[in-house]
Amino acid sequence: MSFFEQLSLLPEVPACTKIFCEKIIPEKIIAFHKDILKRSYNLAYYTIFLQDVDMDELFVQLSVTLLGDRAVYALKDGDLSVASRKKIDAFLKEYTGPHDVFFFTYDPSYKKNAYKADISISKKDFQTIVSLTAPMNIASSFISQLYKTRDTYTFDEAVMFIRYADLLGGRHDLFFSEWYPRLLADDISLFTLSTYFFAQQKSSLVAEWNRLKNKYPVEFWISFFSEQLWQASLYLRLARQGRAVEAKRYAYRLPYSFFQKDYKRYSLNSLAQAHKFLYLIDYGLKNGYATDGFDLFIHTSFTRIL
Questions:
Q1: What does the pLDDT average to over 61-82?
Q2: Which H, E and C letters describe the chain, residue by residue?
Q3: Which of 75, 86, 175, 282 has the fewest Cβ atoms within 10 Å of its own Cβ atom?
C-alpha cells in the first residue's frame, strides 16, 4: 500500500499515527489529508499547532469525547521545548483514543517509526492521488503525457498539475506545448535570481533578470516573487521569535544566503511593501496597463523594500 493510500484510511481503532514529512512542509500534507478524509468519513477534523497550545489542556481534549463522537486531530510538530517534547512523546506513545490522532513532523528522530511522506511522485502515485481527490475531470491521456517527459514530480508539482488537469478536461495539447515548459521552471536559475534579489546585488540581479524574464509569462513571475516574499516574511517572523527550527521550514525555496545573513536586511513591513507593489503590478496588467511593471520592480527593489 502506498503512502497516500495509507493516509486515506483511518485505523480500525482510535490511535496515534506518526507521519514524517521529509522535504515537504507538513501543512501541505495536512491539507491533503484533511481533504481526502472528509470525502470518505463524516468526521470533524481539527488541526493543532503544538507550539501554540498548552499540553495539559490538549491531553484533556484528546482524552474526552462529546456524546461519543469520534474526531480526527492533526497535530503539527513545531519548535518545542525539551520538556514539552518529552510530554507529547509519552502521551502519544500510550494513546488509545477516543479520537484518531495524526502526528505530522519533520523531525528526523521520528523517521524510523513513522509513515514517510513520498518525496517523488511516480505515475502510479499520481493516479492514486487523483483517485483520492475525486471527483476530478482528469483525462488519462493527460497523465500519460505528463509522464512522457519525467518519471517523477514533487508533491507540490503533482498537486499543481492535478488542478490544471481538472480545469482542462480533455483539451490539453496546447497546455503541454505552451504552459508545461514554463510551469517547470529552471530551479537553479531561479535560485540564483532570488539570491541576487535578497542580497541586493543590483548589477547581477538586473543581468540575471534580463536573461530570464522572457522565458516565463508575467503570471509566473507574480507567483514566484509573491511566494518568495511570503516565505521570507514567515521566516523573518519566526526567526525573531527564537523559533529557529520552525523558521527553516519556510526557507526551503529561499536562497541559503537569505537565512544565513540577508534576512537581517529586512523588516516585516519592508517585505509587505514589496508584496504590495507586486499586487499593483498584477492589477495593472489585468487592467491593460503597466506592462513594464516588473522591470520597475527589479530596478527599484532596493528603494522599495529597504
A1: 87
A2: CCHHHHHCCCCCCCCEEEEECCCCCHHHHHHHHHHHHHHHCCCEEEEEEHHHCCHHHHHHHHHCCCCCCCEEEEEECCCCCHHHHHHHHHHHHCCCCCCEEEEEECCHHHHHHCEECCCEECHHHHHHHHHHCCCCCCCHHHHHHHHHHCCCEEHHHHHHHHHHHHHHCCCCHHHHHHHHHHHCCCHHHHHHHHHHHHHCCHHHHHHHHHHHHHHCCHHHHHHHHHHHHHHHHHHHHHHCCCCHHHHHHHHCCCCHHHHHCHHHHCCHHHHHHHHHHHHHHHHHHHCCCCCCHHHHHHHCHHHHHC
A3: 86
